[in-house]
Amino acid sequence: MAAPTPARPSGDRRTSAVQKRTSILPKPSSLFLDPSVLVAQHASFTGIHPITVGPNTVLHPHSKISSAIVPVVLGEGVIVYERARVGVGSGDADKRASSAAGGSSRESMRVDGTFLGRHVIIETGAIIEAAEIGEASVIEAGAVLGRGCVVGKVRGVLITDNGNNLLTLLLKFCTVSAHCIVPPHTHLPDFTVVYAGTLKRIDKTLQAKPQVQGMKSALHVKQLDMFRKLLPNQISKWT
Fold first, then answer.
1. Structural domain contains residue 120
2. Are 150 and 131 in contact (CB under 8 A)?
3. Residues of 196-226 as b/e, b for ≥16 C-beta within 10 angstroms?
4. Distance from C-alpha of 52 to C-alpha of 6, rounded to nearest angstrom
5. Is residue 3 part of a domain?
6. Which residues contact 89 (CB under 8 A, 6 or more apart)?
7. Which of 10-43 are b and which e, b meaning 16 or more Cβ less than 10 Å from the residue's Cβ?
8. I need a labelling partner for 76 at 20 to 30 A (CA). Which of 32, 33, 57, 69 fits?
9. How many domains does the chain have?
10. How many whole angstroms separate alpha carbon 140 and alpha carbon 35?
């Protein structure tokens, strides 16, 4: 006896499609992305203040840039890895950093914005509410920088084609090691390495050998090229 032929679904059968939710987070009042920026899928920009992203910057999946309280500027060739958060009000950085310092976060002090210099690297899960991070500095996985922190020294101002100001910093190569916490309004001198929680030292090798600095910068450029080959670019979603 032949097996019964399975009934075909009727033409008016409805497919169960879940409607995609729209984000309720506010979009930045002004978002400038250089055409060479790489924005991976699920990277996001939120807030009510301007966000400016310089040339060749790479934002990995699920990275978050927030201008909820102050503007954010990312300089040339910045890399923000997965689940990293940049911007004042982007996470619980202030509470954790203040707790680690054993004191107040000095909320009354003025914070004008978050500025990341050229070739800064923000690794996975880091929370950045710092005021300024100097060029070629590395903030490793899970590190926390409280509000108003200054990593490296400000050296000048770069005016972009559309009139926005981009704060530029010289090569200062600071490093905040994984899961270290920098309390609010801390100023780290050039070539500082933060390690073992809150301990600090100066990287004298980088400080004394410009050729090592050059090698590190060349490696960073190669990383940027590699990401362009590996990560699909979703910049059209934001332009």
1. yes
2. yes
3. eeeebeeeeebeeeeeebeeebeebeeebee
4. 58
5. no
6. 47, 66, 68, 69, 129
7. eeeeeeeeeeeeeeeeeebeebbbbebbbbbeeb
8. 69
9. 1
10. 27
Handedness of CA 19, 24, 30, 35 (dihedral sign): negative
- Of 14-23, 72-81, 107-116, least confident by mean pLDDT is 14-23
Read out DSSP for 123-144? -TT-EE--SEE-BT-EE-TT-E
102: which DSSP letter? T
Residue 125's domain comprises 31-237
**Four-residue CA torsion sign, 125, 127, 133, 139:** negative
* 133 pLDDT above the threshold of 60: yes
Residue 210, classed as helix, strand or coil, is helix
For tokens 């987070």, the residue is 25
- Mean pLDDT of the region 116-138: 95
Q: Do the strands 192-195 and 199-202 form a parallel or antiparallel pair, or are they unpaired?
A: antiparallel
**Rounded to an integer, what distance in angstroms lies between the CA atom of residue 138 and that of residue 121?**
5
What is the token pair recorded at 142? Answer: 């899970």
- pLDDT digits 0-9 by tens, 80-106: 999 999 999 866 555 555 555 554 433
CA distance 144 to 100: 10
In a domain, 64, yes or no: yes
- Answer whether 23's CB lies under 8 Å from 66's CB: no
For the domain that residue 44 is a member of, what is the CATH number?
2.160.10.10
